[in-house]
Amino acid sequence: MMTEEHIGISNTCPMGSAWREWDLSTPERVHPSDPGDFARVQAARAAVRGMKLEKIEVSWSIASDDARYLRAPRGAHHAEESPSHLHADFTVNGHRVHIDRLSANKHSPGRSYVEIRIFVDGILAGRGGSAGSSLGGGGNDLPAIALLGDDRALTVDGQMVVTLWERECAREQGAHP
């Protein structure tokens, strides 16, 4: 549970506000439209995680465009306290990391999604998410995963647990942790 001390505005949040209009069928939610972003996300998704190095404790804050501060888009059929936007900023292995956890619960028909975006040094480096509908559709490609250089990967699962991993290919190539 978040307390008032967890409420904050990140000065480094790269998400913008277009995500507030996303729905299950919004292509940008799953497939970043920028070719460079898409390539980085696909490379991270294809990476093989090796040894777990550490669980990283991060401080999550409520973003200024969360429904607790900014009403849902008109006509978007959002449930109460939706859409939600939490984020965290930290540094690991010399890289600035920003994570966004975006979610929405909607009605007519019932549907929801969770989308996690990982930005490394200001650039989209990974994503993952889950979605479902009262009509039976859905999917899940969590955890979100992003590459940190040539030898590390960072994951964020659906419970917002952040973990640093050695990349399997880095170990095979003789890289040292």
Protein model, in words:
This protein is mainly β and about 180 residues long. It has one domain (about 25-170). About 10% of the residues lie in helices and about 40% in strands. It has helices at about 25-30, 35-45, 170; strands at about 50-55, 60, 85-90, 95-105, 110-120, 125-135, 140, 145-150, 150-155, 160-165. Strands 1, 2, 3, 4, 5, 6, 7, 8, 9 and 10 form a 10-stranded antiparallel sheet that branches. It starts with about 25 loop residues before the first helix and ends in a 5-residue tail after the last helix. Residues about 1-10 and about 170-175 have low confidence and may be disordered.
List keywords for this structure.
ten-stranded antiparallel β-sheet, disordered N terminus, mainly beta, 3 helices, disordered C terminus, 177 residues, 40% strand, single chain, 10 strands
Please bin the fraction of helical residues.
10-25%
Percent strand: 35-45%
What's the overall geometry? globular
For the residues shown, what is the average pLDDT? Answer: 82
Multimeric state: single chain
Q: Give the uncertain stretches in residue-range form.
A: 1-10, 170-177
What's the total number of strands?
A: 10
The number of distinct helices, counting runs of at least 4 residues, comes to 3
**Rg result:** 17 Å
**How far from one another are the termini?**
34 Å
